[in-house]
Design goal:
- The chain has 157 residues and is of the alpha+beta class.
- The chain has 5 helices and 8 strands.
- An 8-stranded mixed beta sheet has the order 2-1-3-4-5-6-7-8, sandwiched between helices.
- Helix 1 packs across helix 5.
- It is globular, with a radius of gyration of 14 Å.
- It starts with a helix and ends with a strand.
Length: 157
């Protein structure tokens, strides 16, 4: 699937809502996080509220975990997760996770690089949410933009 076709298919899943197709996928998630990171726990609450079962594995060896999962250095964030054959890196919104699970693209995973203010788990009273990119990543540096989000919602593709 080429870059534009993949982006269009996933954007369609985001617009239509992917909950019906996702119901048949594995909604059990493993989250790897540093024991001292509070925002990671807030992101776990975000995905649990959407019906995912989450096993949290705390470790101080996050760099090694990310390397094992195949997360590129330029997409790193604070926590990593695994769900139904995909890697999630950082504060990925549930709508993006559900779109990937519904469409099943041939990628390693989906990432929100860094720790954008206002992304799920990074919201704080009195702080404005900033736009951030959600990126699909494959092997050998392949990237596909999924869209621009503010908070948990996609605002552009």
């Amino acid at each position: 699937m080429n870059h534009k076709t993949l982006a269009a298919a996933l954007a369609g899943a985001l617009l239509l809502g992917a909950s019906g197709a996702v119901a048949e996928t594995n909604r059990t998630m493993i989250v790897h996080k540093d024991p001292n990171c509070g925002c990671c726990g807030a992101w776990v609450d975000h995905v649990r509220a959407a019906g995912f079962e989450v096993e949290v594995r705390e470790t101080s060896l996050m760099h090694e975990i990310k390397a094992e999962l195949g997360v590129p250095d330029d997409l790193l964030s604070c926590h990593s997760a695994e769900v139904d054959g995909y890697v999630l890196e950082g504060h990925v919104p549930v709508s993006a996770i559900e779109a990937v699970l519904a469409q099943r693209p041939d990628v390693v995973g989906v990432a929100v690089p860094g720790m954008p203010m206002g992304s799920p788990g990074m919201d704080a009273p009195g702080m404005a949410a900033e736009p951030y990119e959600v990126v699909l990543f494959g092997e050998e540096g392949v990237r596909h933009p999924l869209g621009t989000f503010v908070g948990a919602e996609r605002v552009e593709r």
